[in-house]
Amino acid sequence: MSENGYYAWRKRPPSRRQKEDEELTSELETVFEQSRQTYGSPRIHAALRSKGVSCSRRRIARLMLKKELVSCWRRKKRKVITTDSNHNQPVAPNKLARDFTTLAANQKWVGDITGVWTDEGWLYLAALVDLYSRKVVGWAMSEFRDERLVEDALWMALIRRQPAVGSGLLHHTDRGSQYTSRSYRGVLSHYGIDLSMSRKGNCWDNACIESFFGTLKAELCDRKKFKSRQEAKTEIFEYMEVFYNRQRLHSSLGYVSPVTFEKRSDLLVL
Questions:
Q1: Strand 170-173 versus strand 194-197 pairing type
Q2: How confident is the model at residue 229 (pLDDT cuts 50, 70, 90)?
Q3: With b meaning 16 or more CB within 10 Å and e meaning fewer, what string describes 140-159?
Q4: What's the confidence (pLDDT) of residue 270?
Q5: pLDDT in tens, 75-125
Q6: In a 10 Å sphere around its CB, with 0-12 CB exposed, 13-18 middle and 19+ buried, how is residue 38 labelled?
Q7: DSSP per residue over 137-185, as a string?
Q8: Any bridge partners for residue 138, and if so which?
Q9: For residues 118 and 229, is the Cβ–Cβ distance under 8 A?
């Protein structure tokens, strides 16, 4: 390159494409921060399109790479066993059979327990997710991994969703002793809820709730060190109820949040 050519390039004003890239970068940075730095290019692309911004996903990926905007990633963390299937209590068959599709709310709920490490020890979270909207409909947290933990999560879901008795709601979990207990099965029986359980040692039979827990840990728990169980409870509550249910875009829902998806469904029915 000649000296004159170099100085001419230095004095050349930004092109229209460069200006558009700068504006687009500013907008995607805003979305990235609003997502708590959890969104990759697909979700940022969907969020911008919902705001009327016309751009390609490849362009978003290029600009994110240029600005070194990288979504959170999983780190190997300490594991805890939450399923005790060595018991003599009755186990339900796998009626869900990995069919995670549903046409309406309150047709299929999936549940499980996970552990979150804090400086005070383990905090256990039991959650129930409605497969229709992927919304967390019931949850409970405790330092004890017992029957009361899962029952509290179930009662929250029943109070919130109020499924009709005998509506055919299918409740699927693993075969842990908490879910096979007489009191838990009694509540399900009272409401006419059909019980389904995964095969022994097969996490894929309950893949959707496993995916939720993986997302929770990738986007929150693996990125923070909780000094106490109470701090973890507060952060997890805020993540599930404020961000996950109401803001986070889900690819399986066409990149809308669970709450938005259910509202749209209600409008279609009306």
A1: parallel
A2: very high
A3: bbbeebebbbbbbbbebbbe
A4: 42
A5: 555 566 566 556 678 899 999 999 999 999 999 999 999 999 999 999 999
A6: middle
A7: EEEEEESS-SHHHHHHHHHHHHHHH-PPTTS--EEEE---HHHHSHHHH
A8: 128
A9: yes
